[in-house]
Design a protein that fits this description.
The protein is of the alpha+beta class and 479 residues long. The protein has helices at 3-16, 26-33, 42-45, 69-81, 134-143, 160-166, 173-176, 211-215, 249-261, 274-284, 304-320, 332-343, 345-349, 368-381, 408-427, 443-450, 452-465; strands at 38-39, 62-64, 86-89, 106-109, 116-120, 125-129, 146-147, 183-189, 195-199, 224-231, 233-234, 238-246, 268-273, 294-302, 323-328, 355-358, 361-362, 385-391, 396-403. The chain has four domains: 17-109, Uridine Diphospho-n-acetylenolpyruvylglucosamine Reductase, domain 2 (2-Layer Sandwich); 116-234, Uridine Diphospho-n-acetylenolpyruvylglucosamine Reductase, domain 3 (2-Layer Sandwich), CATH 3.30.465.10; 238-347, Alpha-Beta Plaits; 352-446, Alpha-Beta Plaits. The protein is globular.
């Protein structure tokens, strides 16, 4: 896709953000929710006008804080009567503009719906409300000797409702999959105010269409997720962490292919390029080698004997494919420091420039080296500062633009470069987003990836479930 088309679509998206509804519904919202649960003051609503996506913002008309599903239903019905758009929001950690409101809309913040409702150790499930923080879910499972695997980098603040709405990934995605793989049931409020329960605790269930999966990753455009039934796993008995240093990026990519070809599936298989290594070390001070062109952070978990065997084989494969050095974390403390260093990559890079744009593209593992070279070539040609890190094991890369949104010319070049990077990802048989979602930022590229027929099907589903176009309008597709 050419940069000029990207810019035209980006402008159209921002215009979509300025279309809003009728806020005559505020008195009804106040009457239903009570004092302190409805914000309308200009300064009060500003924090809810953006998420973690750079350069996208729009002040909403009102912000509401429901505490129960019945209050969500009433808010939806009030908004529908007044034809006022609703944007559902958790902690606002999204990276595709998915929770950026439209003008005169209602932002429905679900942080008050934060109860853990049931831990069922006989069926290995956990029932929670949408506003529960992901780290709290992990901790609840961990205390019971269980594991909730999805671990987005924002897990200390992001909510499970947002994770489900975006189908979030994380460092453990290679072995354990993404959020979708752990959702057994959902309570969803539809655009007409009706409440649906989709799924159950059964491991097998093929009754009817799989409607549950339709809402996972739908970014709040089809319904409002209020409760989630999650699958848990037994906690692995052992875990070991390796750090492999490479003088060539290609050698790191070849090592990843060799590990997978050897039928070894690590828990995590993470990549940092030279710029990211330097920034993370300056930020976290964990002793990363500053002379490396690339690092692989590899973690294996499971039965102790199997873990030891995997670690030995992985180290041998890394050395065989050109690793300068392979070190194993001495203990759990050092392993945790390395994992924390990787999770801090975005924060470390964000210190360099006023604006940090963390992007997300995924390609087949066989194309990783080609994709990274393409990112480097595009960045150099447009005179941009770009660092790359990501989940090498599943082909998910995060090219990160270090820029300044006040510099109009530089932002123009950033947008041109982003368009070219997404085009390259599609050419390599990949996707424009592996875990951040489409939202506003990726919408211009969705038709290119899906094709006209599939794109039309998405629009048909949106029109069917949200005929008035009031649920998170302007995201993913236009109704």
């Amino acid at each position: 896709m050419k940069g000029s088309l990207f810019q035209e679509n980006r402008m159209a998206d921002q215009e979509t953000c300025s279309i809003g509804g009728d806020l005559a519904c505020v008195p009804a919202l106040n009457a239903r929710l009570g004092p302190g649960c409805v914000l309308t003051g200009a300064e009060d609503v500003i924090p809810y006008g953006f998420d973690a996506t750079a350069a996208l913002k729009q002040r909403p008309g009102a912000v509401v804080f429901p505490k129960t599903t019945s209050e969500v239903v009433d808010i939806v019905e009030i908004a529908r009567r007044h034809r006022t758009p609703i944007i559902t929001r958790g902690s606002g950690t999204g990276l595709s503009g998915g929770s950026v409101p439209v003008e005169n809309s209602i932002v429905m913040c679900l942080l008050g719906m934060n109860r853990i409702l049931e831990l069922d150790t006989r069926n290995l499930t956990l029932l929670v409300e949408a506003g529960v923080v992901t780290q709290d879910i992990f901790n609840q499972a961990d205390a019971a000797g269980l594991l909730y695997p999805p671990d987005p980098s924002s897990m200390k603040v992001s909510t499970i409702g947002g994770n489900v709405a975006e189908n979030s990934g994380g460092l453990r995605g290679l072995k354990y999959g993404v959020t979708r793989d752990y959702v057994m049931g959902l309570e969803v409020v539809l655009a007409d105010g009706s409440v649906c329960w989709l799924g159950n605790k059964c491991v097998k269930d093929v009754a009817g269409y799989n409607l549950r999966d339709l809402f996972i990753g739908s970014e709040g455009t089809l319904g409002i997720i209020t409760k989630v039934l999650l699958k848990l796993l037994p906690k692995p008995a052992a875990r070991r962490t390796l750090l492999a240093t490479f003088g060539r990026m290609d050698a790191a990519a070849e090592t990843v292919s060799a590990i997978i070809e050897a039928k070894i599936i690590p828990c995590t298989l993470e990549f940092l390029d030279r710029k990211t290594i330097h920034c993370v070390e300056d930020y976290a001070r964990v002793g990363l080698p500053l002379d490396a062109e690339a690092l692989l952070l590899i973690e294996s978990d499971g039965h102790p004997a199997a873990v030891e065997d995997d670690v030995t084989r992985i180290a041998a494969l890394a050395r065989r494919h050109g690793a300068i050095e392979v070190n194993c974390a001495r203990d759990a403390v050092e392993a945790a420091q390395l994992a924390t260093a990787r999770r801090s990559a975005f924060s470390a890079l964000a210190r360099l420039k006023p604006t940090t744009i963390l992007e997300d593209a995924t390609v087949p593992r066989s194309e990783l080296a080609n994709m990274i070279r393409s990112i480097q070539e595009v960045a150099q040609r447009h005179g941009l500062d770009v660092a790359t890190f990501g989940h090498f094991g599943d082909g998910n890369l995060h090219p990160t633009f270090l820029t300044n949104e006040r510099d109009a010319d530089e932002m123009r070049r950033v947008e041109l470069a982003m368009g070219e990077i997404f085009e390259r990802a599609c050419e390599f048989g990949g996707t424009i987003t592996g875990e951040h979602g489409v939202g506003l930022a990726k919408k211009p590229f969705l038709r290119r990836q899906l094709g006209n027929a599939s794109y039309a099907l998405l629009k048909a589903i949106k029109r069917t479930l949200d005929p008035d176009g009031l649920l998170n309008p302007g995201k993913v597709v236009d109704a």
